[in-house]
Design a protein that fits this description.
Blueprint: E1 3-6, H1 13-17, E2 26-30, E3 33-37, H2 43-49, E4 59-63, H3 69-72, H4 75-82, E5 92-95, H5 97-100, E6 117-120, E7 127-129, E8 132-139, E9 146-153, E10 156-161, H6 170-173, E11 179-186, E12 196-197, H7 198-208, E13 212-216, H8 220-224, H9 227-238, E14 241-244, E15 250-252, H10 253-256
Parallel strand pairs: 3-4, 4-5, 5-6, 10-11, 11-12, 11-13, 13-14
Antiparallel strand pairs: 1-2, 1-15, 2-3, 7-8, 8-9, 9-10
This protein binds zinc ion.
Zinc ion binds at residues 66, 68, 141, 163.
């Protein structure tokens, strides 16, 4: 049975800088394939400290949605750990072009040979990791190339609406997702910040109607408003299950199928 574990739930710079929530990534096991999404600061530490500990050597791949620090700081150490300290050539990295090339790539060149392969994310292509199909969805998010992700496996269709400014076609792109995870940084809409606010996240949930919606990646305004209470209110209003992830929250296939 598949599962998704939120090693960290911090979003935005202040929550990350003060570590009010952990900023580690999200670990998925789908159809027996283990995948790590967005290894932010502290990911390796959190992998080893959670109970039971997660084993980087069992990862099939790492997916980077974009190169912002809170999503990518631990990508290099996680590549090395996935490749048994660089002794083995193993694992796959999926990442946007600007995380790999250009003036300011975040993936160090010296760890790249540890990987079995590197694939550059492009919208319109479908990627395979074990029995999992991964479809990137281009998101507008500041100056960096950013992709939301849809994972399809025998456990169904899972959508990760990572950092993004809201755009009208967004709900359509995640249509049919049974589990929908939304990076909900802001309590209220702010036109100057390219992140989803709670009302926008709930608008997406309302349109997609997943079996389970998980809010995560919280900024200060969300944390101060007690996300678990906001999620409970949203569940009531929308008539479907909405939860706010806590550091270490695990959801299982039975929760969304
Ligand atoms: Zn970002």
């Amino acid at each position: 049975m598949g599962w998704v574990k939120f090693l960290g739930t911090a979003g935005a710079r202040f929550v990350v800088a003060r570590q009010l929530r952990f900023s580690a990534g999200t670990w998925l096991e789908l159809s027996g394939t283990q995948i790590l999404l967005d290894p932010g600061p502290g990911t390796l530490l959190r992998c080893r400290k959670v109970r039971p500990p997660l084993e980087p050597l069992e990862l099939s791949g790492i997916v980077l949605s974009h190169k912002h620090l809170d999503h990518s700081t631990d990508v290099n150490i996680m590549i090395e750990a996935m490749a048994d300290g660089g002794l083995k050539r193993r694992g796959v990295l999926l990442a946007p072009h600007d995380a790999l090339e250009g003036d300011d790539p975040v993936v160090l060149r010296y760890v790249r040979p540890f990987l079995e392969r590197i694939e550059t994310l492009v919208e319109g292509r479908v990627y395979e990791l074990g029995k999992v199909r991964i479809t990137p969805v281009r998101h507008p998010h500041g100056q960096v190339e950013t992709y939301g992700l849809v994972f399809e496996s025998e456990e169904g269709r899972l959508g990760f609406v990572v950092d993004t400014k809201f755009f009208p076609e967004l709900p359509e792109k995640y249509k049919g997702c049974q589990l929908l995870v939304l990076n909900t940084v802001l309590r209220e809409w702010n036109p100057d910040i390219d992140h989803l606010s709670l009302p926008e996240a709930l608008e997406i949930v309302k349109a997609v109607r997943p079996k389970l919606a998980v809010l995560t990646h919280f900024g200060m305004t969300m944390l101060r408003s007690k996300p678990w209470e906001l999620a409970a209110e949203a569940s009531e209003k929308l008539g479907l299950k909405v939860i706010a992830a806590d550091d270490g929250t695990t959801v299982e296939a039975k929760d969304w199928t």
